[in-house]
Amino acid sequence: MEQTLKKKLGVRDIMTIAAMMVINFAIAMVIGTVTLPFPAVYLYGSAGIDAFIGATFYLVAANRINKHGLLFAWATVYGLIQGVMGYMFLVPYFLIVALIAELCMVGKNTYRSAVRNRIGWMVNSIGNFVGCAVPLWWSWDSYQEMAASSGFDANTLNMQLSMVTSPELMLLGVVITAVLAILGTLFGQRLLRKHFQKAGIVG
């Protein structure tokens, strides 16, 4: 029984996830703001750039906690944040992303496996990219109003509509996001070995 309890996420684990997510989400907001004036970069690259930078913070949490449920919690909280921002219909979508990402981590000590973390983080990141298209598929008219109030110009909206209605362009975005997510985990793994492990932040 005690061994089972140790495998469940505890309060300290949740606090670690929350701390890493706050940093990651703050970075994502900055990336979105900086790339918004450049529609092509914003639409096709912002999710990937976020995945590249955020990989390090995810890996810190993964290596410190090493318990199943981490990616599920990570993607679920991200979905809840989207819901609070006005996209409540995205919550079920991100629950599905959370489940798929967590299923990628089935097995023992997978959260300390470089390869499995790479796969799980890539799936989560692709889910984030595709999630940007869901509001347009769900309700284009209401999304236009919300996007306009957030600073989107007509050119960006038209490019976004073209992207989400073209399988080829969506695939391009998925590939860019996947590549940057993988590169992010490779870079993050090196940082963990060179700095975080020496500092005792991760085991």
From TrEMBL:
It holds the Pfam family Trep_Strep. InterPro entries: CHP02185_IM (IPR011733). The chain crosses the membrane at residues 14-35, 41-61, 119-140, 169-188. Keywords: Membrane, Transmembrane, Transmembrane helix. NCBIfam families: Trep_Strep (TIGR02185). This is MptD family putative ECF transporter S component. The lineage of its organism: Bacteria, Bacillati, Bacillota, Clostridia, Lachnospirales.
